[in-house]
């Protein structure tokens, strides 16, 4: 019996409750539709902040990639910026070499980051917890130092020079006002979110959550833990690389900071603020973090990290599941109170 026939038989014999659960998860809710419609409001209500909005969308895409491995698979990473940086430098290099078309640049950058992610996933799949944190951190630092040493290629400490992005679809310039940049980043975020949403709300996604809870037992029910980890890690690396390429293309600059530990730490903070394992958590966290950073830096350019730290401590103490988790608890509490009041009025 082939693997395809085994999978088909498994689908046919799967409990109806499991199939109904997945169908219910895939179904769009009104709150999701409202959320995505609200992302169009900056074009009308805040046109002066479209550059910031584009940075928020790119950061949200980066946070989404981290959520796939941390929130849904339990893979803790302190070096996820390595794949972001690979995508950023790939998009920058092909532009310097004479090809600045943004869409094909995204594809090439995603492939490059995915290849690096696939190679490193064989190591990542073998370790958990503290060892995994140290390995991902070490890999990120190693790649940053390699980029710094290869100054003839990457520009080293001074960054890569001579990047020029061609007009999107041959018509829309990446102007200083950020209209094209935000539309580009938002469209990319939404399309990749659809892919991530479909992955998570699938049998593969359920297996990832099982690996997160207890990876050692998953092979007993037919889920190859190491293979699944390698697959989702490679997908997350591709998405991170695309986010890095978007940043390079919209700003026409890339430096060692794209590979640095600070960027890995920032995206982890975004995810913790929004809530891990919720898909929208990274997006919400990116919005809160980037807007707060912009406001705090305007108030006090030297000590704005103090306020970010204070915000993070407050969220962890009072909303341990993140902002989105807190909102979900509030909604459930409101539903319960409404149900009780309705029941009390029933004769």
On the 0 to 100 scale, the average pLDDT is 85
Instruction: Profile the largest sheet.
Output: none
Number of helices: 16
What amount of the residues lies in strands?
under 5%
Which word captures the global form? Answer: globular
Per CATH, which architecture? Orthogonal Bundle
SSE order? HHHHHHHHHHHHHHHH
**What count of structural domains?**
1
The CATH topology corresponds to ABC transporter involved in vitamin B12 uptake, BtuC
Explain what this protein looks like in three dimensions.
With 347 residues, the chain is mainly alpha-helical. It has a single domain, classed as ABC transporter involved in vitamin B12 uptake, BtuC (Orthogonal Bundle), CATH 1.10.3470. 73% of the residues lie in helices and 0% in strands. It is built from 16 helices and no strands. It has helices at residues 3-13, 16-26, 30-38, 42-45, 50-70, 81-96, 102-124, 129-149, 151-154, 179-200, 203-214, 225-251, 261-274, 280-299, 304-318, 322-345. 40% of the residues are buried. Residues 1-11 have low confidence and may be disordered.
């Amino acid at each position: 019996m082939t693997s395809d026939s085994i999978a088909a038989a498994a689908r046919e014999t799967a409990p109806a409750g499991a199939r109904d659960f997945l169908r219910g998860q895939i179904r769009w809710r009104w709150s999701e539709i409202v959320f995505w419609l609200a992302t169009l409001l900056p074009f009308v209500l805040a046109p002066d902040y479209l550059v910031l909005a584009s940075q928020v969308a790119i950061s949200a895409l980066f946070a989404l990639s981290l959520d796939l491995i941390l929130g849904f698979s339990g893979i803790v990473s302190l070096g996820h910026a390595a794949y972001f940086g690979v995508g950023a430098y790939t998009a920058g290099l092909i532009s310097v070499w004479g090809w600045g078309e943004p869409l094909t640049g995204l594809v090439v950058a995603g492939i490059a980051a995915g290849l690096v992610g696939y190679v490193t996933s064989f190591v990542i799949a073998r370790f958990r917890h503290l060892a995994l944190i140290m390995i991902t951190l070490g890999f990120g630092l190693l790649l940053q130092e390699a980029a710094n040493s290869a100054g003839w290629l990457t520009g080293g400490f001074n960054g890569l020079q001579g990047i020029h992005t061609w007009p999107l679809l041959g018509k829309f310039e990446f102007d200083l006002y950020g209209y094209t940049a935000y539309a580009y980043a938002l469209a990319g975020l939404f399309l990749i979110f659809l892919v991530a949403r479909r992955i998570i709300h699938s049998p593969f996604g359920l297996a990832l959550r099982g690996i997160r809870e207890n990876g050692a037992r998953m092979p007993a029910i037919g889920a190859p833990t190491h293979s699944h980890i390698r697959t989702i890690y490679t997908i997350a690396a591709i998405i991170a690389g695309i986010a890095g390429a978007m940043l390079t293309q919209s700003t026409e600059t890339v430096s060692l900071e794209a590979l640095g530990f600070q960027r890995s730490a920032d995206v982890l903070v975004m995810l913790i603020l929004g809530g891990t394992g919720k898909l929208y958590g990274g997006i919400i966290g990116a919005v809160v973090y980037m807007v707060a950073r912009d406001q705090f830096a305007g108030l006090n350019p030297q000590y704005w990290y103090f306020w970010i730290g204070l915000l993070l401590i407050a969220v962890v103490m009072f909303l341990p599941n993140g902002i989105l988790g807190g909102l979900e608890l509030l909604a459930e509490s409101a539903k319960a109170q409404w149900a009780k009041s309705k029941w009390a009025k029933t004769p």
